[in-house]
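Reopening closed ticket. The problem is back. First fold of the pair:
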Amino acid sequence: MYLTIAFSWPAGTGVNTAGILLADLIASKGYNLRADKEYASVIKGDNNTFLLSISDQEQIRLSKTIDVFFAFDQLAIDKNSTIYDLKQIVSLTEIKTPHKNMFAFWACLAALKMSLEEGKSWLSKEHFHLDTPENLAEVQAGFERFSSLPIASTCWTVEGVFGCFSLSNAIGEPKSLKLGNQLIAEGAIQAWLEFYSAYPMTPVTGIIDTIVRNPNVTFFQGEDEIAVAMAMLGAKYAGKRAMCASSGGGFALMAESLSFSHQAEIGGVYLLWMRDWPSTGTPTFTAQWDLSFAMNAGFGETSPIVLAPSTFEEAYTMMMQALNRSDRYQHPVIVLVDKQLCEGYKTVKKSDLTQGEIDRGERATLPSSDAQDTYLRYQITESGISPYAIPGEGLTRMTTSYEHDEAGATSESPETKQAQMQKRFKKRTTFLAQEYQNDQIAYEVVNPYAENFFVTRGINRYNLEALIKDRPDRGVIVIKVFHPFCPSLIDFFKNHQHQIKKLIFVEMNYEGQMEKIVRQECWLITPERNEKVTHFRKYTLYPIFIEEIQQVM
């Protein structure tokens, strides 16, 4: 069973509150949920929409079909009917109330055959504090108003269910509804994050709400993204687990700091939240434009480590991987996150939010009291990784953005330049040897014996996995690490070249940035292989819906 409900009315009147209240209540009954919010970039004169997908199965997909649509004005209907297929419209355009969110929440409860008493009890929960006289008045009004509408007595046709739909009974243990940004922040905190810096920017701002509540993390809000990135590197230099965050425009200001981090071998984690571009674009909507930017962030051959979570659970667990790799390789790490993931909601199981061990990297050995301080911060090693020391611990170190010798002294010697460049790039070979013993870290193949594969990244995987369910001829390849690129994916395509009939690259940008990288890395450019490759690309502000790719394969 799948059911999608949506609310839409003017910005600033609590549309998200109504959706989250309803989602939390349904999640407490054991259902699987995924919620998405679409809101206009302009401050006034437009409507916001909150979409809630409900299922009694593990698979959660994003559909353009909305089974029940609650609208408080005609604009909500006119705007959303051009994007979604609105099956049942509950028009509340004649309702005059200052509490639209409470009214709609209760109308929806009545629509789902849940009792008035259950709803009132839910509002009185300690963490809501919403059982005020004004809200309870709207409870009664919304419930009674909906009961008088013709739709209240009708039966809906919903996929998997024919008849009067009811969510009155629980179907399993209560689940936890989590915001993507909240999961990312909690994952970083669990991974021993000690310093976080950011300048408020859509859609990354929500992480701050969780970070500032934790006394173990120092939060710094800089005057701009340059200050944010350099403060993060300062904390990292001082030995702290540190990260910063921004979206494309702010990340562009951080680019120079990535080159500094690479040259000085400081490390640091950069969260890059993707939204629509170019320039300011339409900043509250989604796209996957920034992969090429991330792969080439900084000037010169900076080559940061680039990660891309594809599920809400991975967004949590990947924070440990990012912070560990930053410490282990003393190299900048970029985490690419889709807007629909960071600003969306999903029910998660606590058992799925697991992480590995903390790895702070190789530390330098402190000298004995009578030993001479001969510490070489940039010592040339077989792995390319030099043991690091924290300032104030008894070892003298120099750090500079200029080229330097092993001790850190600036140098323009051709021999030193060549040796230090080779040393820094040895880390890539070390990364490949150490990190890719488990291929699932770099990419994941769902149904490896299929003949036709979707190739994707990020949040697109949810719809694609739902689409291949019970279809043994279809599979999904999800790429999670783009740099350094995993060699075994090259081997997978080589070993399965006769089995694979079609590869469809699915992404949200115009030029097919992911497809270009995979084609080049995996030699999918020969005539024999090229004829098997096609793509589906979307760049219309909205995410990819399952109906849009059903016709592709």
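Second fold of the pair, where the issue appears:
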Amino acid sequence: MPGMRQLRIETFSNAKGGNAFYKAVTHPKTAPAARALLARLARGGPVAVYDPLGFAEGFAAVWDLGGLDLAGCFVQDVERIGEMLLGQAARPVTELAGSGVATVFVAAFDAERLVQHIAHLVPRGAAVLTLDEMRLPAEWLTNRRLYLDPLNFATNFAFFRDEGGLHTRLVTANYWPGYGGKGTEVRCLLFDARGDVVAEWAERPEGVLVLDSREIRARFDLPPFTGQLFLHIVGAAGHDIVKYALDTWGGESLSCTHDANSWPADFYAGLPAPRDDERVVLWLQNSHPVAIPKGAIGLNLMGRDTVKTLDREVPPFASLPLDVAAFFPGARWPQQLEIEAGRWIVRPRYEIERAGRTRISHPNVERTDLRAEPRIAELRNHFGKGFLLPAPVLPQREWRSALLPTPMARGQKELPIAAIWYDASGKEAGRRVLGRVPRAECPLVDEAPALPSGYGHVELVYDFSDGGEADGWLHALFRYERNESGHAAETSFGAHIFNTVLTWKGEPQSYAGRPPGLSTRLFLRIGEAPNDTICHLIYPVSSTWNESSETELVLFDSRGREQARERVRIPRSGSIFFRVSEIFPGKSGAYAMVRDTTCRLFGYHGLIDQEGRFSLDHMFGF
């Protein structure tokens, strides 16, 4: 992607995590103050930029400083003297005194001491402005002493709709008190398709947070809308990740998805091409307070070099549906597409329309930092199967289950993989070696062996019997179709190492604390009547672990009070598929937790009704 069209600011790296400065300068609540700051700088005559912390370029990547009369850029670190900063060679701040500027812009938050340090260098009569001009209001902050504390920016976006007979319902647990947080408050901004804020409010959840588009639309007397819901947590503790389950339903449609990755990425992949009877719409939702430029967003067929770009601007926080067929009219499932996103959007959603029904899912982040790792082939000596990606094979009398490998790193030229099917009892029921699959030719695997229990799961694993290379970032899209009704759902995820005490590069992954992750805490939202909640729990094992799980299913009401508790055992390499109404007959609740201190489980959940409509997505833990 051309450099001028990419948002040139660090958002997230696997080495450092998320960049709180990025969230601070793109936060929707601060956008008016940022524009006012720019206006003051533009009116302020010759401007000197003082960049003691290295934030000036990042700020300018979001907020265009081209309208300033820039008289010089100054730094504190002598090793930065002479580097190009905002198009000028950086000078030592000690030269500021003779600059003759009318305004000094200090590119930092919590800048009081930094301003004091250079007070003797500021030209007489010059104004001093800092990024503190665009701080969030104090009541939005968790840590008021350190503005760039990541906990001040525990935020996320959700695709949110109440239009055309379709509704959305967001559900999550108030999990921050478990990390020591107090008085959790959720501040909400609702954007319509144009990017305008149509509602702002705060929630104070006890045990569970439920945001229903029908209730919100009625509360604020809103017209039909499709847009974004922005969530900001005050009182967060432990981590700044905002997770949720999101259901979309209405008429013949029912689908669910989970939290967006709140950090924009350069690329996304796993966008499916339509079948002949489908329309695939990519929802492009701008997650920034400035417009996405023309040509900054593009699509290409997986493994092909031709990129077709969007030839229009996307306004701040606006939502725009893109028909995949308008870009590649000949593309057909199981072909898939990549999204060149340029760090402008958080993980986008796509919507598949078929026979008057819609279903929603999401592409995943396509990594740019990975290279082939020869040691992965040697991991079998210590980790058995090593990296594996587990997914349900739903009851075969009712559903058809299929998987499509999805290259999810820019450097992946091939995938040396195999699929292994396991019965619910944990016994291997079949294996298919796919070989060294070229990036552009990932095969659809839609035939599973008959499983004695009637259901089970499949694991996508590396297979080096014919050689090949891998990087550990193994992904696939899983699609399910109800035999009688034709309703469909799909989800996607990536591989991990499961249930071994040995560790390698952060695996087996742990939600809290150091790896290995050898316990389970999964959130299971409970659907509204007439929908029942379905759940498929898998006990994947890379080599060998406990013979069976010791899994507790705990039902809670909306205030987080326990209502019921049941224990189930899942065989090693086995699974269990159930309806919540069967586990807790006659009981009602707002959500359930899946807890196991003996092993790490992987789970999928969804809703199902009596008409054959259903949804499915993977669960999240915290």
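Update: turned out to be a display glitch only; the data is intact. The chain has a mean pLDDT of 95. The two ends are 35 Å apart (CA to CA). Please close again.
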